[in-house]
Amino acid sequence: MTAVQTDASALLGVYARVGPLFVAGEGSELVAEDGTRYLDFVAGIAVNALGYNHPVIREATLRALDTGLVHVSNLYRTEPGERLAAELTARAFGGQAFFCNSGAEANEGAFKFARKWSGKTEIVAFSGSFHGRLFASLAATDRPDYRRPFEPLLAGVQIVPLEDRAAAARAVTERTAAVIVEPLQGEGGVRVVEPEFLAFLRALCDERGAALIFDEVQCGLGRTGTLFACEQGGVTPDLLTLAKPLAGGLPMGAVLVSDRVAAALAPGDHATTFGGGPLVATVALEVLRTIADPDFLAEVRAKGAALGERLRRLAAGAPRVRAVRGRGLMWGIELGEPAAPFVTAARERRLLVLTAGPNVIRIVPPLTISRDELDRGAQVLAEVLA
Question: For residue 14, what is the domain's CATH number?
Fold first, then answer.
């Protein structure tokens, strides 16, 4: 394979990019410019749910291009976005859908919708949260180092200890517009939020007249073994935010809005130029249908259970491992020391993993990954952590 002549210096230096230059992908592997293949347990940060070069995405993209409609704007109707909204809301809790371009945009939109519906302004989030890097979503993100250079951010946002009922009850008042929580935290260390706490938040929001927002940007759309992570707790939010895997790697986010919140919104209350365009919506519909297939989700659950058991055995033989947490194909290995050196060591052995906070190795492979590939990656992790 011929080396590609490039120079990253023209890219704004807000990322500390590492590793080789990738030029291709196939299945669960990325291919570097020298032909070296890397087993990918990152999947574009939980984006590439169907892996690389999947026929569903390729065929849907070509079909959309054949119509000539890449973009029309939301001034006019197009079929793909309307069909996608109908299928998403039917599979969730009814209501309506708003499409945008990213998870941060979805959360920003959800905050606006909750404020308009409630007539109130304050927002409550939780420790370990990550909701984005725009001004409202960053204010609700529990990363002080991320927030500090850009303060003042949105006022009226509180971050309280996760699963502390007394603290949540004090924070959620008659002035609270919304409570936002990830049913399974990603950036915060891959932490499963107990269903009982989600049910407590549902009751608390109902009592105080606040909207309950579930941020499933990373944990939604099949990642935990059900289409929506909140299904496993049996708790229904007022707003549900989605993004990462929705359009198979094309930029797309969504806010699913309950009927009672949607009724408070009118033309002009929010907008997006690109959101829900015909090309991305065509691809997203096929990705949704693929992931939502019961057999596909059952296989994610089975592979997730096998991976979880393998990681727990790994932890038992590695004293530096403090805990293994996760669900479906979203796992974290908490260490008693910084995780970054082990991410580097795994990459040197042609396995890509990433961190979730300073001490956690995060594993979010394509949902289509094979069991043999999961075993191969787990073996590399065992060697690295031994």
Answer: 3.90.1150.10
